[in-house]
Amino acid sequence: MTTTDTGLPPAVSAVDGERIVTPPPVEPPKRRRFSRRAGGLTPYALLVPASLVLAAIVGWPLIQLLITSMQEFGRAQVFGAPPTWVWFENYVDVLTDPTFYEVLGRSLVFAAVCVVSTMVLGTLMALLLQRLPKGFRLLLSIGMLLAWAMPPLSATIVWGWMFDTDYGIINSVLVNGFGLEEFRQHSWLIDPLSFFLVAGIIIVWGAVPFVAFTLYAGLTQVPEEVLEAAQLDGAGAFKRFRLITFPYLKPIFLITTILQIIWDLKVFTQIFALQDIGGIRALTNTLGVYIYQVSIAGGDFGTGGAIAVITAIILMTVSLYYVRQTIKEEEL
Amino acid sequence: MSATTATAPRAARAGASRDLAPRRRGARNRLSTALWSALSVVLFALFAFPVYWMVNTSFQPNNEVRGSDIHFWPDNFTLRNYATVLFDPGRTPFAPAAVNSLVVTLTTVVVALVFAFLAAIAVTRFRFKSRRGFIVMILVIQMIPGEAMIVSIFRVIDGWHLLNTLIGLTIVYVATVLPFTIWTLRGFVNGVPADLEEAAMIDGCSRAGAFWRVTFPLLAPGLVATGVFGFIQAWNEFVIALVLNARPEMMTLPVWLRTFLVANGTTNWAAIMAGSTLMAIPVIVFFLIVQGRMTSGLVSGAVKG
């Protein structure tokens, strides 16, 4: 395992691959072929259980989703009435509905703010972890681990309690500690903007540890000699980060950012539970929650299906890069 | 690079960078280290506080929680909230939900591990036509948003008359955790050189025997880590359980907690915090067990050890 070649994916993959992953494409050595022979039907048999489950719970519903999204499918159809084909009418309905654009815009802006805050704070935390003496690093790691480990639902409820109108600690500290009387009995969740502030805090609080730990793992692979040489040449801390550390970490940055985008765009639990605690649903729905509201709560599976397909397309587009990059890096 | 090896160089290199620091900048550096350390204590408090606040509130009498004074420490320590959550017959009962959660989660982990293990062997130890296609499919499936699929999953499970059953929920959970489990296990199996098996086969083992006696024992840590990921995922899952198992006696813990929250509104925060703590404890314990390996599975394409 070499330490200096990380961040230069082709080189690393080659070392990795040659040793244990892929046999060289041209003229594979005999020993490898011996262990990696075709094996007749064995590999297919081994894939049967996993494939069956995925086909039943992912493949089949996916087809169903596409079909439903082109049908008039309401409560009556759930109880057995035959659905009527409306082809792309549901999509037209959704795409001409101002509510959908409100929800979409809200989700995009909210996800963007969350992703940027998470990435910036996560990067700063990773850099801080690197500068800390061992004991303090362990302490901070434990704190972040606790935040990361909290189940999203528990986390949302705890934050909801901390932001409680009457007895929450945040209002109490603002009033008694800072003398800000306007926060006495201040409701944080009624106003959509401050609702999303609270939701954003919950999501960023839970996501920063993942980014920080991942980037910290990457930071330890940046060669110390190069950084030191740059310092001797007079490069400041920011310049060193921008010109040396960042290029080394670029693949990790991209992938964590994409994962954050996907997770934040489809966020459900935090928004849904906060609405339970005190938000106004109609003003605070995001894509994930909106699909649930329209189809499960509202009973309009056709329209809900169309929204789901549109959401899936948006998310798949974003994740395309992740999939492509992973396939390339792993030399499949 | 598999997840097992990703942590080792991290520690070594971090040590090296720290040793270099004092030589470089001397007194100024010591001052900045002190400042960073102080900052890290503040940040630790920020990250840990909500968890502490949840536990702290859960040990206080509800009338104090609803008082004007803030108690930063449970001065009047009480276990009554836990008694309310666990034994109060008037509320949605905790015990059945906990049992449901345990049954569904453990079954999911075991079944997903077995299925994923077989699939991981197939894609790492054999060359066959659709191998690459299968791996790409696994990656793509991981990217499909569950929230978008929930409606059709509901209808499929309903069609099989498995709504409000533990079997139905388990099947869906197995499918949910499978892609990630296969992907991670594939990395672990790759980490065990096939040469070891060949050596055993030359010594007279059958192909299956060689795998079972040589490779499998080496995979034990990987299986444990992957199993824990699956456990956390299934234990925390909320949307699917909310839609599929809405009947009170069939709820899992997250759905129970949500019901408990809605039913008790904001009148009994102390009990809600007790319930929340009970749900969070297993996950926090597991996280502390596998901490270092959490990141490497997800970004294995980018983080190369």
TrEMBL record, chain A:
Domain of life of the organism encoding this protein: Bacteria
PROSITE patterns: ABC_TM1 (PS50928)
Regions that span the bilayer: 41-63, 108-129, 138-162, 193-219, 240-263, 301-323
UniProt-listed Pfam families: BPD_transp_1
Major location category of this protein: membrane
Domain ABC transmembrane type-1: 104-322
Keywords carried by this UniProt record: Cell membrane, Membrane, Transmembrane, Transmembrane helix, Transport
Membrane topology value: Multi-pass membrane protein
Compartments where found: Cell membrane
GO biological process, one term: transmembrane transport
CC per GO annotation: plasma membrane
CDD domains in UniProt: TM_PBP2
Record-stated family: Belongs to the binding-protein-dependent transport system permease family.
Descriptive protein name: Sugar ABC transporter permease
Protein's organism: Agromyces binzhouensis
